[in-house]
Amino acid sequence: MIHLKQGDMFAQVGSVIASLMFVWAMFKQYFPYELRDRLEKYTQKAFTFVYPYIQITFHEFIGERLMRSEAYSAIETYLSSSSSMQAKRLKAEVVKNNQSLVLSMDDHEEVADEYKGVKLWWASGKNVFKSQTLSFYQITDEKRYYKLRFHKRHRDLIIGPYLNHVLKEGRALKVKNRQRKLYTNNGSYWSHVVFEHPATFKTLALEPEKKKEIIDDLITFSQAEEFYSRIGRAWKRGYLLYGPPGTGKSTMVAAMANLLNYDIYDLELTAVKDNTELRKLLIETSSKAIVVIEDIDCSLDLTGQRSKKKEEEKQGDDKEQKPKSPKEERDGKNSQVTLSGLLNFIDGLWSACGGERLIVFTTNFVEKLDPALIRKGRMDKHIELSYCSFEAFKVLADNYLRLESHHLFDKISALLKEAKMTPADVAEHLMPKTVPGNAEACLESLIEALETAKEEAKLKAEEAAREKESSSAKEEAKEADNKDPISEKEQ
Ligand SMILES: Nc1ncnc2c1ncn2[C@@H]1O[C@H](COP(=O)(O)OP(=O)(O)OP(=O)(O)O)[C@@H](O)[C@H]1O
Ligand SMILES: [Mg+2]
């Protein structure tokens, strides 16, 4: 316990010096002015010589409006791990919706820290003020603080890099401990609920290499603040998740948020009146967030906006007579958000405010989207989520049935190659049907479903082949019909 010995030494040296200073303050008035001035100068010098340590105080409250200091709470969080190991008296606070505890040292405790081989000490304390009001009760006001002590020869290292490190780490820990939120827009306002989706990349059924690639990409992004600022790009990244329904697109968004500890802003574009409202919503999003637009192909008629425009130019006033799309009729309103409005949302100037944001689009029909919307630089990473592979099935079997291997796995592996089934459907068969769950029964029900799906796929393929054959026969007959008069003429 070196830090305690050092701390004791500080306390002793400090109290000796404090007593000397006290004696000096009592008697200095009896000395002539000039001598007093000199003596004071030498005492200060002696003080810094004997006590060559620098002390910085961080108060809990700042300013007259008594705002809680951000630095104080970042330090409190930063010190929580060393406090729980070193301090004898601790304070506990419950965070994350009563799910976890954060410990900090109680008043008048001291803990040591080390940075690049340099040792320093943090002490907690409080000032108590008593104020007598007109009423009978006495009001006590406590103001807490942290005091940092270090040797003066490390001044540059501690005041610069170390304190930056403490604040950065403290803030990052706070973000990790905070309760995350899921925001949804009601028109141009965000409302939120607590975000508690249990999906993680571990439970996501996906091929391991693909999973690793996505995780690496996300982590690299979240640690690349300096890189983005060096290359002059806003700190954001776009993901396009596409694939059939039930392949895990929404689940992956939740897993991303859980991995990076981000909030989610689920943006419903059809509820946004126009581009101005869209911009307002964007400005109100915080950093460390995922802004997700689900089913972007159905959200707005962004799919063929450009080609549609060209068509409209050709057709003149025909537009007014056009019947409304089913979506427009259902909503009873028509959002005025345009493709260019959305593009500005993604990469316009305002999108850089706040930084550290992921923008995620999900869609079932990637081919329907305007290429401008999903080009690299806007949607930087395109991820296809497809039908369940055997690798993905193994993740589900482990999650749902706690099975790493089983004699039916080989059969399932062969069937998954021939039948297309989404992870959502596979998962449905793995849900326990009895208590306690019978794994074999689940696997057998899955095999049965896969065999049916395989049969259906076979029938469909045969039908498609027949249709193709008959249509090519028709084409040939048509071609032959067209050729006949010519050949007759030639004859
Ligand atoms: N890859 C997967 N890994 C784990 N679970 C999955 C996966 N895909 C689907 N599921 C399960 O199926 C359900 C539906 O999945 P999800 O909502 O993520 O699909 P989706 O791709 O977003 O579908 P849609 O296109 O209809 O929005 C989820 O509750 C999840 O439990
Ligand atoms: Mg979805």
From TrEMBL:
Reactions this protein catalyses: ATP + H2O = ADP + phosphate + H(+)
UniProt similarity note: Belongs to the AAA ATPase family. BCS1 subfamily.
One of the GO biological process terms: response to stress
SMART domains with a match to the protein in the record: AAA
AAA+ ATPase domain location: 235-389
Xref: InterPro entries: AAA+_ATPase (IPR003593), AAA_N_dom (IPR025753), At3g28540-like_C (IPR058017), ATPase_AAA_core (IPR003959), ATPase_AAA_CS (IPR003960), Mitochondrial_chaperone_BCS1 (IPR050747), P-loop_NTPase (IPR027417)
Record's protein name: AAA+ ATPase domain-containing protein
Pfam families xrefs: AAA, AAA_assoc, AAA_lid_At3g28540
Source organism of this protein record: Manihot esculenta (Cassava)
The organism's taxonomic lineage, starting at the top: Eukaryota, Viridiplantae, Streptophyta, Embryophyta, Tracheophyta
Top-rank lineage group of the source organism: Eukaryota
Residue stretches of biased makeup (Basic and acidic residues): 309-333
GO MF annotation: an example: ATP hydrolysis activity
Cofactor: Mg(2+)
CDD domains referenced in this protein's UniProt entry, alphabetically: RecA-like_BCS1
Keywords: ATP-binding, Hydrolase, Magnesium, Nucleotide-binding
Spans annotated as Disordered: 305-335, 458-491
